[in-house]
Amino acid sequence: MLPPLATNSILRERYVINDIVGQGGMGCVYRASDMRLPGRLCAIKEVQHDTNVAAEFVAQAQVQFLQEASILAQLDHPNLPKVSDYFGEDGRDFLVMDYVPGQDLKAVLNEYIAKGDPIPEAKVRDWGLQILDALAYLHNQDPPVLHRDIKPSNIKLTPDNRIKLVDFGLAKLLLADDSKTITIIQGQGTALYTPLEQYGGESDHTDVRSDLYALGATLYTLLTGFPPLSAKERFLNPSSLQPPHLLDSNISKMVSDAVMWALEMHPDKRPTDSATLRTAIQGKLAAPESEEVAELLWLTAVWENRITLLTVLGLLLLAIFITASSS
C-alpha cells in the first residue's frame, strides 16, 4: 500500500492537501484547498487498488471507479455532500467532494455520554428523518444507489444543524434485475451496523432494506448510547436485543418500535422503503411487533412475575395432590 500523501502535496495542479481527516484499508480521506476557487475546502477520498492482482484487473477496477464516480457526481441533495471531481493519478484514484464542517454523530454522542445525558429523542428523530430524506433520494435513482455503511461516524451535523450523510466509499448501484449489485469503491460496511445479508461479498442480495437496517442500528445507538448486538450475535442468540424503550423509559414506544422494525433480521420483515420507515418514526403508521421482541417481552414478563407464577403452580400441584388423596 502506498504511503499517505504529504501535507502541501498538489493533485491535478489544483488541490492542495492540508491534512488527513480519515484513514482506512483502502486509503485516506484528506482535507484540501481548491486553488482555482480560493477559500473553498474539499474532502478528497483516496482509493488504492490491490496491487497483488493482475494488472488487467487493476485497470478494469480503475475504469469502473471512474464510471461509477461519474454517477455520484450527478447526485444533488441537501443532505448529501456534492461530488465535484474524480480522477486517477500516480496509482491512486480520487473522489473530490464538498468538505462538510461540523462533528460526526459519533463525536456528538460521546459528548452527551461524557455529560451523563442521553441525546433527546426529538433530536434523534429529526436526524433520522433527514437521513431518510437522503436515502429516499439515493434509493429512487435509476438504478438505485445504496450507501452500505451508514453509522454515526459517517453522518455529519453541520453548524446550522443540518445532517449530511457522508462517505460514499461503499455506495452501490443496484442492477435492474435485483440479482446483484455493482460496488462503487469496494467495501463491506461496519459489523455492528451491517445486516446479515450484507456479509459474504459480491454474491449477496442486498437492497434498499439493507440501508434501512444500518439506519435502525444507528438510531438505536444514538438513543441508547451504545450500538445494538451485531446481526451475527443475534442470529446465534435470538431475542437477545432489548428494544430501546425497555432500556430507557424516556424513549417512546412509537420510536422504539420503528427502530426495531428496521432492525428485523430478515429483509422481508423490515419496512419496504424509506417512506414507510418515515411514517413509522413520525407515528403515522404502527410498526409491527417482531417475533424477537414479542418473545423477549414474554420472557421478561415471566421473570418479573416468577414468584406469583411459582405460587400459582404450587397451589395447583397441592390441589391435584389433595384431590388424588381424597379419591
Q: Care to describe what's here?
A:
Strands 1-2-3-4-6-5 form a six-stranded antiparallel β-sheet, covered by helices on one side. By secondary structure, the chain is of the alpha+beta class. The protein folds into three domains: 89 residues, Phosphorylase Kinase, domain 1 (2-Layer Sandwich), CATH 3.30.200.20; 186 residues, Transferase(Phosphotransferase) domain 1 (Transferase(Phosphotransferase), domain 1), CATH 1.10.510; 33 residues. It has ten helices and twelve strands. Strand 3 and strand 4 form a beta hairpin. The radius of gyration is 24 Å and the shape is elongated.
Give the amount of beta strand, in percent.
Answer: 15-25%
Number of strand segments: 12
Which ranges are low-confidence, i.e. pLDDT below 50, for 5 or more consecutive residues?
A: 176-188
The CATH topology annotation of the largest domain reads as Transferase(Phosphotransferase), domain 1
Overall geometry comes to: elongated
**Strand order, biggest sheet?**
1-2-3-4-6-5
Order of helices and strands: EEEEHEEEHHEEEEEHHHHHHH
The average pLDDT is 85
What is the top-level CATH class of the largest domain?
A: Mainly Alpha
CATH superfamily of the largest domain: Transferase(Phosphotransferase) domain 1
Number of domains: 3
Rg over alpha carbons: 24 Å
Number of helices: 10
CATH architecture of the largest domain: Orthogonal Bundle
Structural class: alpha+beta
Largest sheet: 6 strands, antiparallel
Q: How far do the termini sit from each other?
A: 86 Å
Share of helical residues: 25-40%
Annotation keywords:
17% strand; six-stranded antiparallel beta sheet; elongated; Phosphorylase Kinase, domain 1
